[in-house]
Fold this sequence. Notes:
disordered N terminus; single chain; mainly alpha; 5-stranded parallel beta sheet
Amino acid sequence: MTNSTVTNSTANKSTATKWTPPERPEWVAQVIDEGRHMDIKSLVPLEADELMATARQNTGFDDFGSDEWLEGFHVFLKALDEEADLHLQGRLMTRSDILRWLEARLGIEAAYAQHPEIEDEVIDSPVIVTGLPRSGTSILFELLAQDKQFGSPRHWEIMFPYPPPEAASYETDDRIERCEHLVTQWSRVAPSYASMHEMGANIPNECIVAMSCTFLSENLPGQYQIPSYNAWYYQQNLDYAYAYYKRMLKVLQWKNPRQHWLLKAPTHLGNLEVLLRNFPDARVVISHRDPLVAQASVTSLLGTLYWMRSSQAFDAGAFESLMTPEAGADRLNAVVELLESGAVPKDRVSHVLYSQLVEQPLVALETLYQTMGLPFDDNSREAMKHYLAQKPQGKFGKHRYQSDDAQERDRKRALFQRYQDYFGVPDET
């Protein structure tokens, strides 16, 4: 399935959202109010040449690599300037993010220039988790990360990939503390976010976060209401973003080897062919959940992410590929078609039901390991049991979201029927 398939099938089907923004912490409200009386675009510039010059100055490196990323960079900055309506706090967070993405590129290219042998690193049979957003991909990912045969890119090394992480200092690296403060800032700006997604420097993070430094990533429209970037993104070939991510992984494993990478992003569900072109020996794991519940939860998540950086009203059309039920059904039906046609080999894909993962997690994991053809040893089992005991459901508060009336629910249910029947996904509403 191509990205353009999603866009074409959802034209003119945007829907409004019922999402209501939460009250802001007093300190955030004060910063935003102060910014209303300032020329924040001049004070916190988001101009391409200045950002690139600052990143070069900060790192001492000059080479950003090949130019495939530049178009997305400029499209993104233009959309931020014209559409995102960033408040002062949001603009500060955004500038910080962009500079880190640029500095990550400079660091990766410096690593390869200094050590060309990094190119010889082999990414061997990674396990890649995907599924609908809010379908249990995060908890599945975190549980599998307890298995020592897997290595997952932690947030701190995605954020600061240079110098290449080393095994001897992997747990004590100075970059961990800096990353911890930056990523937990999200929950200080929007406290309700903590009930939706746990953040931490040592928590494995998603592929699309790492791909942000390509400026060809669904992570960008996931944080900002930038419809022009969104429209551009869904017309792009994503092979460059996936190939550059593989380039990053080689840097990360060079001095800290992994037996198999464990990776994750809901975005992969709509890009299975691209994924397998770039990681041809990957084992793909799809988590399945009632789409009606998953989609309602996505609305709340995206609304909160946008609210961190802007006071602009949330328009579901800014993220059409996830927000409209027609688009969601198209994406899920396309997965069925890829499997049935053989375009994506069935033997490369395993499946996990969210309902079983929540109710009988170790049973679900046992079955998953069998279908992947991988050993599930006692040490891994005990590590996962311990992790579950330390992270009971609702540990960070209950994530509440609004649902539809009965008539609208029935209409949506019919759209998703083929997907639910094919994978045996139970209703949750």
